[in-house]
Structure formats: C-alpha cells, structure tokens
Amino acid sequence: MLSQKAKYALRSLLALAAHKEGDPMMIADIAEEANAPRKFLEQILLDLKRRGIVHSVRGRSGGYRLGRPAKEITFAEVIRVIDGPLALSPCASRTAYRRCEDCFDETTCAIRKALIEVRDVSAEILEKRTLAMALADKRKIPPRS
Q: What is the four-CA torsion angle of 44, 45, 46, 48, rounded to 10 degrees?
C-alpha cells in the first residue's frame, strides 16, 4: 500500500511541476498546495533533495524547485525513494531481495510467483508514469463542484 508520505511527496512534486518553471516555491506554499503538514513535508523534501529530484534555493526568494524536468521524474522513482522497493514482499524485490524466513522452496512458491508478476506489472506502469503526464491528466479533469 502506498504510504501517506509517498502521497505527500507525489502531490508536492506535482505542485512544483505546475509552478512556473525555474522559480523556486516556498515550502509553506508547497504544503498548502499538496495539503501536507509542513514539518512532515520538510523531511520528505530533504529525502527528495538527497536524490536530486528537487533542489533547494537559499535566500529571500528561495524555496524548492524540481531537480530535473517533470517529464524525467517517474512515480516509481519517487515511491522507491520514499517507501522503498515496489515489491509487496522482499522475496519478489529486485532492489531489496531477501528470502522469506518461512519459505520452504523459493523456486516453486506460488505466492512468490504471483508477487513477482504484480511487481512487474506495477513497475511497468509506474516507470512510464511521469510528473508531466500526471500534470497533463490533472488539467484535463474538470474540478469537483
């Protein structure tokens, strides 16, 4: 399940992607736009900054901006930074593989096979889905009444 932290991260990045390109956005404005608690958002943005997804700008007109174009930042990358591997179980993970302690035979495990299939399909979708695509979709959806 996608964590609330990952949802805040994605919504914050979408706010930055929608902001005037190149201009930094103050954290209070990002928090309001993403409907995220500011203190929690500070830690999230720090994690994203360490991975180059966002950059911080110091000074009076400072804030945060995307570290790369929105078309180059995928949902999968953001989720992995915030929540870790996309796999539902460590035995199905490519990046954090670990054999399950209670597994009898990993090569014939029906659960593992299903989870690998889920991982592959999910990863394929999330690797293709960029911030730019999500922003374009968001603009097509009429506002709620």
A: 90
C-alpha–C-alpha distance, residues 34 and 40, integer Å: 12
Task: Tell whether 32 and 64 lie within a shared domain.
Answer: yes
The closest of 67, 78, 79 to 24, measured between CA atoms, is: 67
Predicted TM-score (pTM) of the model is 0.85
Q: Give mean pLDDT, residues 42-67.
A: 92
Pair (139, 69) in one structural domain: yes
CA dihedral (82, 80, 130, 68) positive or negative: positive
- What's the structural domain count of the chain? 2
At 34, list the tokens.
Answer: 């993403």
Return the DSSP state at 72. G
